[in-house]
């Protein structure tokens, strides 16, 4: 009988191929090969002594999964990216399975890791929940309420997916890489206080059912963010070790992935960042300075909640009741994103004018120009082949409703244009 690694290799290769029947045969062989031996079938050996017994297969699968995720780190992937892509393409249960592999990979890491790495793993609740690699898969199946056959299939499909993932932009050095424990980000208690106030305002915006009130709270949050960004820029311009542009990835899953990517882009632009949408991978990459990136993540999360709630209200209010149509929803979300983007940029420009008066345009403008140039240079380095895509709006009623939800005072004269969106070629 082939050993565990040979059975796993055959199954993964078949799953990555195009012959569905062959893939099923190889998966069946893995299931049979890893089945517990019945009394008298082992020729006097213990049940776990077979070359492809269940404990050997479990341990081999975990080793292969850890090796597969570890190979992705120098190729630009981060723990949240891996969990997102597995969940997006295979489903929630395989997504949870790969989180176990991430936990095992972290446990095997011999050196220090950057704090942001552990923060991502904590957000995923990635922790070792098993005693010994040999019992890992069985324990996972019990936790998931599934059987061994389904667990083996999930593990093989995850391995096949991980093996085919392309390299992506390296935004931050992974564990073991050069500069891996050097983390650049907002520093000091001032930033924390400002962001706490922003979070409080956004929570109020999300909880209200009055669009005008939500807009007021969101606008005030953007004003605070813009002032904080300018203060950081002036401080960093004189720092011995100033911040440098970095990047974050924000998920843009279906439905309406294009509209979600447009919202990311609008929020990013209002906060002096660049955004590139990777539609096939389900995320937008935002590049900018650390404080601005944190602001983009906060605002985008809140605005997506607000947009979804407003869209559901719009469905109920539209002619014909709450019937859902894709064209209406997409048009609504496009309009919401564009109008909110205008409001956010207006708040940023107002803060810029006030700061120029307070500190002097001759001091502020060169600093802002230098930071914009640094972000653009980072963009050109990581994404030299980006193209522009157009997102077309096809439902005028959805467009009107989305614009109204973002700004009740701007209904007159609005028309549904197409919008360029930066994306990977």
Question: Layout of SSEs?
Answer:
Blueprint: H1 4-16, H2 20-33, H3 54-72, H4 79-90, H5 92-108, H6 115-123, H7 136-144, H8 148-163, H9 189-207, H10 211-237, E1 246-251, H11 257-270, E2 274-278, E3 283-288, H12 290-317, H13 326-359, H14 361-382, E4 386-391, H15 396-406, E5 419-424
Antiparallel strand pairs: 1-3, 2-3, 4-5
Helix pairs in contact: 1-2, 1-8, 3-5, 3-8, 4-5, 5-8, 7-8, 9-10, 9-12, 10-12, 10-13, 10-14, 11-12, 11-13, 12-13, 12-15, 13-14, 13-15
Domain DUF2786: 193-231
Organism: Micromonospora humidisoli
Pfam family, one: DUF2786
Gist of the model:
Residues 261-364 form the DUF7168 domain. With 425 residues, the protein is mainly α.
Task: Write structural notes for this entry.
It is globular and about 75 Å long. The strands form 2 sheets. A 3-stranded antiparallel beta sheet has the order 1-3-2. Helix 11 packs across helix 12 (290-317). The protein contains 15 helices and 5 strands. Strand 2 (274-278) and strand 3 form a beta hairpin. It has 2 domains: 4-37 and 49-163, no CATH class; 189-424, no CATH class. With 425 residues, the protein is mostly helical.
